[in-house]
Amino acid sequence: MDGVPREVRNLRACLVCSLVKASTIDQFELDGCENCDKYLHLKGDRQSVYECTSPNFSGMISLTDPKNSWVARWQGIDSFTRGCYAISVTGRLPQHVLEELQDANITYRSRDISINSYS
User: Distance between CA 14 and CA 91 in Å, rounded?
Assistant: First the structure.
């Protein structure tokens, strides 16, 4: 499968969709995020990769059939491409990225359960 990381060390996850790729930064910088690059513009921009991805995440889901997966529906990723996804991604998008998403009428839902959970 194309999007499956070959090893579990050095992985990063997209802060918007939670797609997981190799953390050498190169994979996100080379290919961007298959789900989010039309508005995150990670491809060819190392700074954006650092700002919009995180090495801190928990759990992984391997998604092979997004449209027919109840887990994908439960995670809200059933419209995304096949690949590996984090269940929770720790981190926050920079304010300028949040504003760009809002200006483009894109609803952003944080994947960081530490922010969304009750204390």
Answer: 10
Q: Could you give all domains of the chain from N- to C-terminal order, each with its CATH number? A: 11-107 (3.30.40.210)
Structure tokens at 52: 């919009």
Residue 90 contacts residue 54 (beta carbons within 8 Å) = yes
Q: Is 97 helix (H, G, I), strand (E, B) or coil?
A: helix
Angle at 17 between CA 19 and CA 5, to 5 degrees: 0
Stated length of the chain: 119
Q: What is the pLDDT of residues 80-99, one digit of tens each?
A: 999 999 999 999 999 999 99
Model pTM?
0.84
Residue entry with tokens 């059939």: 65
